[in-house]
Amino acid sequence: MRETKKELKVPAIKEGTVIDHIPSRVTFKVMRILDLREFNHTVSVAINLKSKTLGKKGIIKVSNRFLTEDEVNKIAILAPNATVNIIKNYEVKEKIKVSLPDEIHNIIKCSNPNCITNNEKVKTLFHVLNKSPLQVICHHCERVMESKDITLI
Amino acid sequence: MEFKGRDIISIRDFSKKELLYILSIAKRIEKNKNPILLKNKLAALLFYEPSTRTRLSFASAIKRLGGNTIGFAKGEVTSLKKGETLWDTIKMVEQYSDVIIIRHAIEGAARLAAEAASVPVINAGDGANQHPTQTLLDLYTIQKEKGKLENINIGFLGDLKYGRTVHSLAIALSHFNARMFFISPSALKMPQHYLDELKQKKIKFTEVQNLSKVSKQLDVLYATRIQQERFPDPVEYEKYKNAYRLDKSILENSKKNMIIMHPLPRVGEIDPELDETKNAVYFKQAGNGIPLRQALLALVLGKIK
């Protein structure tokens, strides 16, 4: 094992992905987006860790899983400042800064109860109008939503 | 400009150039008085929500160009009662017709219909969202009456929160450097995200509660109905219904050639005493829906290029 830098709140992993700098309150939502409850290998989660930039942050370590670009971008919807570290043999092989896609397909729900996507079985689509602060527009009903309005399907 | 096969769903889908092109075709059709452009063409009018003007205007537009219509109005929607999805209805109707015109109470219904259909779909109003043919006929009316679209001073009056015609027209006029005045009670103000969008586009606007404060500056006064069906609470509706009522006194405090527009129906916002004045253009405005809708039909069906 490598030398211990500081006290690790979550055990290090040999192979896999570490998602760091997640705002604490959305950590479990990120778990949900990535379907980690259903995952077969070890997933370690910590929340309410001290963070200079976020106040309280969450961290997720997933063994034996490497995220697709699509999955990385999904994280950006909830945690625009998250970093995704790819770990190979206990080493950080790659550090990816998440970035919002221009279009968000079938991940979030429209906040307008009168939108067709909430009334008929339709895949949702949102166009990103502004990345920071996040502003998206529903492709169908044209409702403009901000971070606080966003819920997952 | 290629319009053949295109859907008309939202005013946001059109560039300034395209908007002006559609208006120029409407002008040409109006001059020629009903050329037979839609012979053997069948339009499906799917009106899931009540409408008089829009439905009759579309039917008239199509028939006067030699085409024909099938369809239903609210109350006759039998399979819907059986629980058929909109998607399935459209998949069937697209095979029965050359173009689909849809009005629906659910926002985004027209966009979904367009995704389902291989024939062009025209949105005739989807809930509180879009009603692009109304917006285009509003632009056409302003252009006809004022001789231009650029640099107009326009006042929007009444329910600016729920009024989709106001939202779409404001967005459309942002292409033409309009100066906008939003006149409404504070509870019915223009939604913030529209104001943000106008700011981004560097459009100057002012929000006021009193029409008299700004009426002298207006070239166009666009009045709207306070719509009962958009209010969950009838008490709220009663409170605002009479907030803005126009009568002849407005003419004493405005430019001589200011025009008064209204998407109709009106329910008391405009005193009939204004009808005979040259300022009142709301009935002409409704009439302008015919050449404008004829232009759109001819364009999306590829009969005019």
In short:
Chain A is mainly beta.
Topology, pairings included?
The complex is a heterodimer of chains A (about 150) and B (about 300).
Chain A: E1 16-23, H1 27-33, E2 43-51, E3 55-63, H2 69-78, E4 83-88, E5 91-97, E6 103-105, E7 108-109, E8 125-130, E9 135-138, E10 144-146, E11 151-152
Antiparallel strand pairs in A: 1-3, 1-4, 2-3, 4-5, 6-8, 7-11, 8-9, 9-10
Chain B: H1 16-32, E1 42-47, H2 53-64, E2 68-72, H3 78-81, H4 86-93, E3 99-104, H5 109-116, E4 121-126, H6 132-146, E5 153-157, H7 164-173, E6 179-183, H8 192-200, E7 205-208, E8 220-223, H9 234-241, H10 249-252, E9 259-261, H11 282-287, H12 289-300
Parallel strand pairs in B: 1-2, 1-3, 3-4, 5-6, 5-8, 6-7, 8-9
Can you give a write-up of this model?
The complex is a heterodimer of chains A (153) and B (305). With 153 residues, chain A is mainly beta. Chain A has helices spanning 27-33, 69-78; strands at 16-23, 43-51, 55-63, 83-88, 91-97, 103-105, 108-109, 125-130, 135-138, 144-146, 151-152. In chain A, the strands form three sheets. Chain A has a five-stranded antiparallel beta sheet, with helices on one face. Chain A has a four-stranded antiparallel beta sheet with strand order 6-8-9-10, with no helix packed on it. The mean pLDDT of chain A is 90. The radius of gyration of chain B is 19 Å and the shape is globular. Chain B has helices at 16-32, 53-64, 78-81, 86-93, 109-116, 132-146, 164-173, 192-200, 234-241, 249-252, 282-287, 289-300; strands at 42-47, 68-72, 99-104, 121-126, 153-157, 179-183, 205-208, 220-223, 259-261. In chain B, helix 1 crosses helix 6 (132-146), helix 1 (16-32) crosses helix 12 and helix 4 (86-93) crosses helix 5 (109-116). With 305 residues, chain B is an alpha/beta fold. Chain B has a five-stranded parallel beta sheet, with helices on one face. In chain B, strands 2-1-3-4 form a four-stranded parallel beta sheet. The longest helix of chain B has 17 residues, at 16-32. Chain B contains twelve helices and nine strands. In chain B, helix 2 links the parallel strand 1 and strand 2 (68-72). The chains are: A mainly beta (153), B alpha/beta (305).
